[in-house]
Design goal:
Largest sheet: 2 strands, antiparallel
Strand content: under 5%
Shape: globular
Bound molecules: iron/sulfur cluster
Number of helices: 4
Number of domains: 1
Number of strands: 2
Structural class: mainly alpha
Amino acid sequence: MTDKDAKAHRQLYAKIPRFKCIEGCTDCCGPVPWSSFELAAAGLTAPPPERADKQCQFALKGGCEIHERRPLMCRLFGTVEDLRCPHGRGPLQLLSVDEGHAIVRRYKRIAVS
Ligand code: SF4
Ligand code: SF4
């Protein structure tokens, strides 16, 4: 994990609008892609195995256990026109599908660098 990785991830995360989820909700949590930077930030060496209930191991009753260190796809959910929260939560202005795809393309480039 280098400073360059951290900066590239920070810059990408900053493009994603923030919003408030329902307290304790993890309904959209499941298997997500992890970059090597994100794995290291979460103290992992490999993506977490799916639990028997098909949820992510960090999904606890109070919400995401690693909220501030969650991967990009977790941050993107609920913020893009074609990735809406099933409970209607989200930022005032959703990202367009093109903007969402551009973020994912950039993520794929930095995730493997
Ligand atoms: S985006 Fe919606 S479904 Fe996902 S955790 Fe937030 S409130 Fe729950
Ligand atoms: S890392 Fe957190 S936000 Fe992402 S799927 Fe797991 S519990 Fe949900």
